[in-house]
Amino acid sequence: MAIVRLKKGFDIQLLGAIGSNGIVAASSPQSVAIVPDDFHGIIPRMEKKEGEHVAAGEPLYHDKNYEAIKVVSPVSGTVKEVRRGERRHIDAIIISPDGANEAFPLDTRRPAMEVLLQSGLWVMMRQRPYDVVPVPGEKPRDVFVTAFDSAPLAPDLNLVLGDKRQYIKKGVEVLNGLTSGKVYIGVREGQDIDAPGAEVTTFTGPHPAGNVGVQIANVKPVNKGETVWTMDIITLARIGELFATGRVSHDTVVAITGEMVQHPCYLSTVMGADLQTVLKNETTNLAQSRIISGNVLTGVKVDATQWLRAPYRHITVIPENNKPDEFMGWASMRPSRFSIYHTFTTWLGGLKKPVSMDSRMKGGERAIVRTGEYDAMLPMDIYGEFLIKAIISGDIDKMEQLGVYEIAPEDFALAEFADTSKLELQHIVREGLDKLRAEMS
Which of the four pLDDT bands, split at 50, 70 and 90, describes residue 325? Predict the structure, then answer.
């Protein structure tokens, strides 16, 4: 087994980590929702209308450009509402579960790609370049799977995986039939993954060691004209389960963490479950909390009336702006103040102790200064500051030369946290990738 030792990056230690608590069964959700924005690159065209019955695994909508790509319902029930926003953008498709768990029939004897497209598991994968749902019919050079999450307060994917690990072998077998290259799995040191047919690599070092983009860059980088698929180990196991049992599992285990959570724990629920059910009796003060579907670096801000977003296995609840009248604001020099750098005296006691952080930016946007901050947080062979400048200026040639085909917004999340310029790096990268994709298509 190859070992890659990463030194760049940083582990953010936050209050609210899960202790030795086991998995708790959540109550049955009152509503379940699919949010189309979770599947970037897809333009939804509805197949179901409000008031119609839907089975678990039955398509709700397909992609306008590639009709074979389906997004399915996680539960059986009735389509309660197709919620639309500006310019009739579909914000959410809300389903009232009926508790029957009626499954939509799937024929797994068909070609593997057709089965994945019809089952809805296709949209759980991503492709590099562009970090979008893969284009059907294109054979990837390789498939990369990350088996751990190194983000702040991230769940232990070994625990989330549970008895689904028995399907990893079948999942690898299926993916090997869809790629012209290999299936690579990145694991943490000491993590045991039995995956015959895959090439397993151990990664050591701080976050973002668990990011699949970082793993690709340190094993076999993506070059112009090449395509790779990416996913986490849970999606790989779901694919194996589909072809082993003939059904898709939409059950999930979600980590409830953060300073504002009374009892951080793992909850077993269903994908897209309403947060009022998931967070029931878990938070101390919702009015003064920020609820994030995902982790604090890459997650999506939601409120308690919304739902667990499909790609995430993590809910983080941190304080909202809990000290708006702090003396000197972000310039306060109090000893307990956190900083990655030596700006405050916190570093004298080490940075491994969990700290309290709220949602404030603590500073305003300003010009990029070449300090090497991005490079220190990005264990990839690219020049982060120069690439961001090329994206902002729209210089496609420079973007290609500087490695834009290798990156995704999440790769710059830690750099965004450490950035003294307070730039929205993930938003910049997302817009740059979308413009590049439009230009190249």
Answer: low
SS3 call for 230: strand
71-74: list long-range contacts, CB under 8 Å, 24+ apart.
Answer: 71/34, 71/36, 71/39, 71/42, 71/44, 71/120, 71/123, 72/104, 72/119, 72/120, 72/248, 73/32, 73/34, 74/32, 74/34, 74/250, 74/270, 74/271, 74/272, 74/310
Indicate the pTM of the whole model: 0.94
The better pLDDT of the pair 287, 128 is held by 128
CA-to-CA distance for 234 and 255, rounded, in angstroms? 14
155 exposure class (CB count in 10 Å sphere: 0-12, 13-18, 19+): buried
CB-side neighbour CA atoms (13 Å) of 262: 8
In 3D space, the residue among 251, 302, 304 whose CA is nearest the CA of residue 277 turns out to be 304
CATH architecture of 251-319: Roll (3.10)
Q: Where are the domains of the chain?
A: 251-319, 361-440
Cα 424–Cα 388–Cα 184 angle in degrees, nearest 5? 95
